[in-house]
Specification:
The protein is mostly beta strands. It has a single domain, classed as Immunoglobulin-like (Sandwich), CATH 2.60.40.2020. The protein has a four-stranded mixed sheet, with no helix packed on it. A three-stranded antiparallel sheet has the order 2-5-4, covered by helices on one side. It is globular and about 35 Å long. The chain starts with a helix and ends with a strand.
Length: 115
Amino acid sequence: MRFLVALVAALALTGVAGATSPPVKNIPAGPVSTIATQRGQLVSVALPHVAGKSWRIARAPNAKVMREVAEADVGRNVVVVFKAVGKGHAAVVFALTRGETSHAYASRSFSVTVR
């Protein structure tokens, strides 16, 4: 548990780099995870590394409900941390792409309810 708390704290302090890339189109169906949390809490998701490809946010969450605060490579995963900033529902969709292309090879979705 201490490791997880330290990891989340370290990720939150690293910040997030912004980048502009073309929108991802034709996202294939993928697993959807449902998360319930409270305002003020951090929510992290882990996406597996895939050689030669990158996970990108294809559909950004409602910024009034949650905001990305950090991301980092952790072992065999990319971990993305969000902060629940307001009550409501937010969905975030990640797409696996090769570089900055708009073609998606896979997806992972997260449906977050903040109380």
